[in-house]
Design goal:
Largest sheet: 22 strands, antiparallel, barrel
Strand content: over 45%
Helix content: under 10%
Distance between the termini: 75 Å
Number of strands: 39
Mean pLDDT: 87
Radius of gyration: 31 Å
Low-confidence stretches: 1-19, 114-122, 711-718
Shape: globular
Structural class: mainly beta
Number of helices: 6
Oligomer: single chain
Length: 718
Amino acid sequence: MLKLFSTILCFTLLPLLLQAQTAVKGRITDAKKKPLAGVNIAIKGSYDGATSAKDGSFSFTTSAKGERILTASLSGYQTLEIKAELGAPQEFNLVLKETVNELKMVTISAGSFEASDEKKNTMLKPLDIVTTAGANGDIVSALKTLPGAQQVGEKEGLFVRGGTGTETQTFIDGMLVRNPFTTGMPDFAARGRFSPFLFKGTTFSSGGYSALYGQGLSSALILESTDLPERSSYSLGIMSIGASVGVDKLSNEKKSAYGFEADYVNLSPYFKLVKQQQEPVVAPQNLNFSANYRLKTSKNGMLKIFFTGSWNQFGFLGESLEYPGDKEEFRVDNKYAYTNISYKESLGKGWKIQLGTSYSTNRDKLYMDTINKSAAPSHVNARQDFTQLRAVLSKNLGQFSILRFGSEFQYADERSALNNMHADYTDSYTATFAEADVYFTPRFVGRFGTRFEYTSVLKAANIAPRASLAYKLDAKSQVAFAYGEFYQKPEQQYLRFFRNLNYQRATHYIASYQRVTEFFTFRTEVFYKKYHDLMKTVPSFNNNGTGYAKGVELFWRDRKSFKNVDYWISYSYLDTKRDYLNYPYEVQPDFAADHTASLVYKHYIPSIQLNLGATYSFATGRPYYNPNRPQGEFMKDRTRSLNTLGLNVNYLTTVGKAFTVFVLTVTNVLGNDQEYGFRYSSDGLRRNMVGPMAPRFFFVGMFMSFGIDRRQEVIDRQ
């Protein structure tokens, strides 16, 4: 009886129930009007809703009345919420926008190789650098395998796109580094001072870099120091040329960490085994020490304190060009200290702040008897003290766009003395900058910035506008364009004596295309760079120099086609000329080669935990000055093409509880003559070839790590 009553009641009330329901239907697409299936559409705060069909259509009924919120959500798209007045049948045409995450969002890339964030097209990680054959763990040597960099072996610095080594600046946590290389010797390149494992990110910008950085005509090497480690670790290294030890200690609450690293290198035993081209009087030896402290101040805040110091000695005897049969001696003693303090914090409402300060001091004592054999040997004492303050504020503009602006102050105290002659100066440098990343759409972004600089030593100011555009063609490909003005003060050796100089300037134009997938990277770039106001030393010191550089570059990296193999190929074509220093007119400079190429190959054999690596580098001959030619044939002579093959072998194992790597590295395995140029006597009758100290360099080492097993890092990279 009760069942019959319920049935009658339902049929009696059915018209009223149907009258209380509102039909909601419509169609949902993406921004390109493509139908979206599987979208969840619902009345917020209720269980009424539906899922869109293959053609994007949806339909459901609801008893809700009045103004309500209709939601639509689908993974990979932004959730849509709109107001809807319910009560009568309605039809909605909804459009969902793609969710823009770091993988899908277009990034500014013209001129830059991001080697930091794995989500932003990683090129080189610290482990890549130390396992690149021929690099010997040096950041700059590894970067020479990327397009844009020249294979210059007789001078320190990173020579990029027709620029000198001094035209590339190094930055750590946003702050300029003075003396980033150890003090060089005549015709011998110096290593970088910093270990790649000190940094979580490396950006090698071969041109068109951000307005947040300045004083580099050609490029910027931007390094970001590590944050907190995942766990505590300890390391010990024993090498054929020295030893190293390191500690990285994470606190129990995992909010702070401290660490230190020390290494001592002495090549005296090595030089006794391997004959050198020059006779060492003081074999290269150096002591390096670094320490750091990191504190997580909040969810997004971090304080970092970093210090490094080093002591280096080297001296050799070489054949004298001016005095046949005689020897010339050159010795250097260098002491260096650098400290960097940085702090970043979120201020709320989309605001962030980055503060930093750094100080460095570099002291060189040089002994030379190469100037005039009839006079007493020369002694040079040089000291550079460099202090910097920097502040950067950033504000999110909407969901993706961002505004950055800030200021920095640098104070340089330069002192030098040749015997009893002194040449000192100080310089106060101030810069302000502003830059905005504007996302017109998730696929189209522009970066617009400008930089104002003033230097007291020149009593001059400049304004440097910069702009970049990038458009994402699909999920894996994008094109980018960049323009910028870049200024740089003349080098210190000129400012010591001449203050009536001006900034040197370069104008960059860059266009690039890149396609990046999980295992493959292809990149090509064309560029044009115009030099203005370069330093000239004849007939007097002035800024009348000019020049240009243009070319095309290719890069291909493949980590999939061959099992357990990672390789990359880079190629650069460079057409450059400049009239600077004592050049009589615009010619190709002695550090530039027309064609440069590198092949880096890494093969991991998991069954025996072995890493094999090879790096082959090629460069066509470079110009050099022959005083026996007439002025009309200035820089017409060429060196032989450079061909060099480096090999390394890394065996991964455990010794007790320590993850251990045994390393063997050999540079220039085939023993090819590396001809960098020639030095002539003043009468032009005698010359010496400029080349490395020895045809090859051998390195053997054992590195032990307690706490972190880095073998998995190697496996994961394959």
